[in-house]
Amino acid sequence: MHRPTAGGRLEAIYVKRAHRGPMDPVDEATLVAGQGLEKSVGRSRRRQVTLLERERWEEFMRALGGSLDPRHRRANLLISGISLPHTRGRILRIGEARVEIGGELTPCERMEEALPGLQNAMRPNWGGGAFGAVLDGAVIHVGDLITWES
Description:
By secondary structure, the chain is mostly beta strands. It has one domain: PK beta-barrel domain-like (M1 Pyruvate Kinase, Domain 3). 15% of the residues lie in helices and 41% in strands. It is built from 3 helices and 11 strands, in the order βββββαβββααβββ. It has helices spanning 54-64, 109-114, 118-122; strands at 4-16, 23-26, 28-32, 36-37, 49-53, 77-80, 91-94, 97-104, 130-136, 138-141, 145-149. The protein is globular, with a radius of gyration of 14 Å.
């Protein structure tokens, strides 16, 4: 049974249409069970969708004096009001979809290329975000409520 706990919001959805290609913002997208974000490349069996906390991103920009758009992180979903660190195995409900958190996303050298110091700033405490597997697919929309299942 789904019992919501403290919630958040889906702030942005980004689709990657080509390897090393730009992250295109969309207002809605489909999460496909066992696959990930429809029309986005770079998915794997374990890492079907990637998530980043808006609050953490803004913290990094303030600390480094940067102003990069969150799409530079290259995560699929920008969320707010939900804390991702140490949530491996927990299930996140995004609108009608359900995503099981698989682990921490470690920041790569592309973060350093985007803004000097960003890769190291993102390393502690899941600062790079999380990855997950889609358990139940659905169409998701910017503005959807996000909650942890208890």
